Amino acid sequence: MDLIQNPVYIVTQRIISPGGEMVIDYPVAVGMPNQAVQSQINQVILSLVNKIMNEQNRQLIKQGYKDLSKVSIQGWYELKTNERGILSLSIGNYTIAYPAAHGLTIIRSLTFDIITGKAYKLNELFKPESNYVKKLSLIIEKQIKERKVPLLSDFKGIRPDQDYYIADKALVVYFQLYELTPYAYGFPQFPISVYELESIIREDGPLGKMAVNT
User: Fold this and answer.
1) Nearest residue to 207 via CA among 147, 107, 135
2) Are 162 and 187 in contact (CB under 8 A)?
3) What's this model's pTM, rounded to 2 decimal places?
4) By C-alpha distance, which of 165, 183, 163 is closest to 175?
5) Cα–Cα distance, 207 to 212 (Å, whole number)
6) What is the DSSP letter of 121?
7) Cα separation of 190 and 48, whole Å?
8) Residue 93, C-beta contacts closer than 8 angstroms, at least 6 positions apart
9) Over the stretch 49-100, which tens digit does the pLDDT of each residue have?
10) Are the CB atoms for 121 and 42 separated by under 8 Å?
């Protein structure tokens, strides 16, 4: 397994509305040896940026807001992992429609193999038939009890496509606002060491690369 890979060089692109009500910063990969892979990664990132914006608009319309011109939107991103041929990042979007008491934040994540440009879904990190949902759910349930995380209802386990990112040698599974906990708690995040998952992760996948000691 070749773990000697240069990090991806990332620059920030900005989308800004004429009146400044919308300011979206998002990451763009540049200078990659394979331009086709670079283009593929950037297309997936921009697609997610637009998808989140549309998701926010649907939420506002559902809440009864009809004039979206009065909406303030701020977008940002965070790099979580950029090593060993793996790029994992989160893209956030905060939207508030005045005079609402508070806005709504959505955070989604992407994890890429920078050689192939493949974006990995959660299930693709694990071996087939590994029952990763049950394994992760049990670990998270234990963390909820140990950390005394306040829940809106009983924890019934993660979704097969639960949000996640990779940070160093940890898989971080997280939940959206109101998905698990009250708004004031923010985004519940549950870091899980790759070594705790070693028996079920795909060795040729992103977690497998993180698990190798070099």
Assistant:
1) 135
2) no
3) 0.93
4) 163
5) 9
6) P
7) 23
8) 24, 49, 52, 53, 56, 73, 74, 75, 105, 106, 107
9) 999 999 988 887 777 776 666 788 999 999 999 999 999 999 999 998 776 6
10) no
